[in-house]
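Supplementary Note 2. Why include the ligand at all?

Several targets in our set were suspected to adopt different conformations when bound, so apo predictions alone were not considered sufficient. For every target with a known small-molecule partner we therefore ran a joint prediction. The input for adenosine monophosphate is given below.
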Amino acid sequence: MRIVFIGKPGSGKGTQAKLLSKALSIPHLSSGEILRSEVKAQTEFGKRIKSYMERGEIGPEKLIADTILACIERNGLANSYILDGFPRTMLQAHELDAALPPEFVLHLKLTDDDVISRLSKRIFCPSCEMIYHEESKPPKISGKCDNCGSGLIRRPDDQPHAIERRLEVFSKEVLPIVEYFRQTGRLHEFDASEEPRKIHSKIINLLSA
Ligand code: AMP
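The joint prediction is reproduced in C-alpha cell form.
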C-alpha cells in the first residue's frame, strides 16, 4: 500500500504516519526528518537546505524529490510506503506519480488559528523527533524527552514569522496538490482537530474498507 499524508504544519501528519506505520508494519518516511538529519550531519546537501528550512521555505524542489525518491528505493519501499511531508509541490507530485504513484492521499485539515496555537507552544526532541505541547502534552520532566531523555527545544521554524511563511507556502504550493489528488480520485480528508486516536481509527477503517 502506498500512502501519503498531506496537511498544514502541526496538523499531526507525523503522529498519524507513525501510528499507521506501527499498525500496518509499513515503514514511514518523513521528508522533514530526512532533511533535518542532513542539516545535523552538516553534509553539503544539509548546508544547502538549512536556511530554507529555518525560514519555513520550500527547499530546492527537484533536488529534494530526487533525494526522497532515492531514499524510498534504497529502503526497499517501492511497493509499500507511508510518506509525510512529500510531495509538497506540483513538480514533486508529478515526480512521485511518474515513479511510484500513491494509492491513498490522506489530507489532515486544520484551521490556521489551530495551527498557530499548536505550533507556538510546540517543543520537540531533536534526537528522536518526539513532539510535545507546553499545555496539552507536556513532558513528564520539564525540558526532557520522555522517550530518550534528551533536552527539548523549539524548532527554529516554529517561530511566529516562520509559521506565517509556512502557512503561505501551504496555500501556494500544497493546496494545488490536494486538488490534483482530489481530481485523480485518491484524496481522503480528515478533521485534524479531532483526537489523534479517533483520526487513526477513521484512517484504519478507510484502508480496510
Ligand atoms: P516538516 O517537518 O514537514 O514541517 O518540514 C520542515 C521543513 O523542511 C519545511 O518547512 C521545508 O523547508 C523542508 N521540507 C520538508 N519536506 C520538503 C519537501 N518535500 N520539499 C521541499 N522542502 C521540504
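The chain is about 50% helix and 15% strand. Residues 9, 31-32, 35, 52-53, 56-59, 61, 64, 85-86, 88, 92, 157, 166 surround adenosine monophosphate (CB under 6 Å). Comparable summaries for the other entries are listed in the accompanying table.
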